[in-house]
Amino acid sequence: MNRIVVHIIFIVAVLGTGLLIGINNIPGEWYQSLAKPSFNPPNWIFGPVWSALYVMIGLVGARMFLDHRQSVAWRFWIGQMVFNFLWSPLFFGMQQIGLALVVIVALLVAVTGFIVVSRRQDHVSSLMFLPYAAWVAFATLLNASIFLMN
């Protein structure tokens, strides 16, 4: 299959799934009623940030699929997708702040693991995951703060 087509498929699949999960787990009154830390960003920022990250995640996924399908990095990529897609339904849908915190910590471990193990085989992909790691680290701090405050 053409490499460009694979990249497009991955971007559409990751972004589309992320958007679908987001649409089905919109923060509502419950989330608005929670005590939040002073560094909590406005709600409108999450959609654009996650959309940009999902495009990068899709690009990296395509690179891994095409060139490193048998690698530990590929397994970390799959793992981080599972944790990523579990978080919103747990936090917003089921309102399980503590369980969502466990999942987002696992997500941060998987993203960091990906960066570490992919560095030698695909340095570009490991660099592309740095903004994702930073955002997930921030989201982990936010999730932990909301958990402790509520």
UniProtKB/TrEMBL annotation:
It holds the Pfam family TspO_MBR. It comes from the Bacteria. InterPro entries: TspO/MBR-related_sf, TspO_MBR. One of its GO terms (molecular function) is kinase activity. The keyword Zinc does not apply. The chain crosses the membrane at residues 5-24, 44-65, 72-91, 97-117, 129-149. One of its GO terms (biological process) is tetrapyrrole metabolic process. Its main location: membrane. Keywords: Kinase, Membrane, Transferase, Transmembrane, Transmembrane helix. The keyword Transport does not apply. GO terms for cellular component: membrane. It is found in: Membrane. It is a multi-pass membrane protein. CDD domains: TSPO_MBR. Belongs to the TspO/BZRP family. This is Sensor histidine kinase.
